[in-house]
Amino acid sequence: MSEMNLESYPPVFRRQNTNPEAQAQAQISCLDDNAKELNQEFDPIPVVDLQCLNLDELVEACKQWGLFRLVNHGVPLTLVSQLEDHSKKLFSLSFESKQALVASSPVSYFWGTPALTPSGDSLSRSPQNINWVEGFNVPLNQLSQFEAEDPTFDSFRLLLEEYGRHLAGLATTIFQAMAKALNLSPDQSKAYLSESTGFIRVYRYPQCSMADETWGMEAHTDSSVLSILNQDLGGFELLKDDKWLQVQLIPDTLILNLGDMMQAISDDEYKSVKHRVKPNKHGERYSICYFVFPAEGSVIQSSKYKPFTYSDFQAQVQQDIKTLGSKIGLDRFRFNQTEADDPAS
Ligand SMILES: O=C(O)CCC(=O)C(=O)O
Ligand SMILES: [Fe+2]
């Protein structure tokens, strides 16, 4: 088991590690897991090459998978590794320092749940249902308006801004190809993906000796139009034909997944893919996720759903999480069968 810096963990993640039996068990299953990983050589995830984008392959991946791997994505590797280094440094600070660090900044620090309010506070969560994750939530359009006193945090901010610009460009390129395939009008395609809505989540999944009974992040679909993930360790799984599949770690590639807004925009032709993250028994996992949404106030017109804005959707998700404990998502907005036949009725 690797060295852990328990002080840096939010207190809810510290309890596991005091149990020597669990630690011994984790050592044993470490061997099992390694054997399993060796067996899974084949990575079935479709690949989209940004240097020669093939529209048919892209559409097929959107319909069949709702997720694909991006290669030749053009994001400078030095930028990615600098951002990873800074993230690790910040997460290694004590729990209290991380809380203090983000105070009076647009960045928020959260743990135990990925479900946040629009201002970045955690939505309440029952202690039995903790997700083994902590993160920084970063609204990109607010980054340039503040300067952090802490030098590491300030260079983190500058790296995020730069990374955000690259990812916004990437998302726009891919979305425009999708818009072309879906015959969206220029106005629609402008309204349905707005770079100004982009935000980044930087996550650390603490080491977890109870990884068989806990989720790093429980199964969900993203509410975004598109999400683009950089992971430093395996653990991301997606649901495909009712089976969970691991997405392997392949260096210098990114994983793009479609969110609920994209599914609605495409009239359900493209899939908002269900996914989850397994925690790791032997080490910490870090990931950086970029999310992008429709322009503020733009109404999504779809033959399958009642017209709604992303704000309507978000408000409904928040309410469902508060009252039911989980997100219902697109089904809340779906026409029922008779309405769908004649939306005017
Ligand atoms: O950290 C990951 O690998 C995935 C995170 C994720 O699914 C999310 O933030 O919605
Ligand atoms: Fe997600």
UniProtKB/TrEMBL annotation:
The keyword Metal-binding applies. One of its GO terms (molecular function) is gibberellin 2-beta-dioxygenase activity. Residues 193-294 form the Fe2OG dioxygenase domain. Keywords: Iron, Metal-binding, Oxidoreductase. One of its GO terms (biological process) is gibberellin catabolic process. Pfam families: 2OG-FeII_Oxy (PF03171), DIOX_N (PF14226). Transmembrane segments: none annotated. The keyword NAD does not apply. SUPFAM superfamilies: Clavaminate synthase-like. Belongs to the iron/ascorbate-dependent oxidoreductase family. PANTHER family: 2-OXOGLUTARATE (2OG) AND FE(II)-DEPENDENT OXYGENASE SUPERFAMILY PROTEIN-RELATED (PTHR47990). This is Fe2OG dioxygenase domain-containing protein.
